[in-house]
Amino acid sequence: MVRSLAGQIEEYLKELLEAQDFVELQRSQLAEIFRCVPSQINYVLSTRFTPTQGYIVESRRGGGGYLKIVKLSWDDLSADDMDAFSAKDEGIGQGEAEGMLRRLQEEGIITDREFLLLRAMLDRQVLAGDRREQDQLRARLLLTAINTLFRMDAQ
């Protein structure tokens, strides 16, 4: 399967992050490797390396554009973070929810089958209401699933 350029960039960065908890790069060097404009790198970082997907991106523009991508541990997701997540008025979009699920799958917290099940449950085709209502419902469902996964008394 031929992956999109964004998918190739994402895969490359995740491979780098497998060996260590963070990577430091220059945006221009990364753009050269993939023969793309730096804005394509920004797109990948802003859509596939978000805090809800388990990453923090520190960025500085100019001079080649310094980037630091830090991989978060699920332990770093505090109760306050989860409360803030659930209180988001705008909810969570389908892409962001799928990103969180993908990270749970990559970390071995959920199986491939559980990933498919949860992704299907959170799909916009399944959820009723307008886009805002769907996003709010998706956030509540995802929060409930995550809270259940991380219960200390669950066996």
Topology of this structure?
Elements: H1 5-19, E1 22-26, H2 27-34, H3 38-48, E2 55-60, E3 66-71, H4 79-87, H5 94-106, H6 112-121, H7 131-149
Antiparallel strand pairs: 1-3, 2-3
Folded structure, characterized:
This protein folds into two domains: 5-71, Transcriptional regulator CtsR, winged HTH domain (Phenylalanyl-tRNA Synthetase, Chain B, domain 1), CATH 3.30.56.130; 74-149, no CATH class. Helices cover 55% and strands 11% of the residues. It has 155 residues and is mainly α. A three-stranded antiparallel β-sheet has the order 1-3-2. 21% of the residues are buried. The model has no long low-confidence stretch (mean pLDDT 83). The termini are far apart. It has helices at residues 5-19, 27-34, 38-48, 79-87, 94-106, 112-121, 131-149, and strands spanning 22-26, 55-60, 66-71.
Helical run tally: 7
Structural class label: mainly alpha
The coarse overall form would be globular
Number of strands: 3
Uncertain parts: none
Strand order in the largest sheet: 1-3-2
Radius of gyration: 17 Å
Mean pLDDT: 83
Largest beta-sheet characterization: 3 strands, antiparallel
Instruction: Tell me roughly what share of residues is in helical segments.
Output: 40-55%
Proportion of strand residues:
5-15%
Distance between the termini: 38 Å
- Count the domains: 2
Question: What string gives the helices and strands in order?
Answer: HEHHEEHHHH
Offer a quick outline of the entry.
This protein has 155 residues and is mainly alpha-helical.
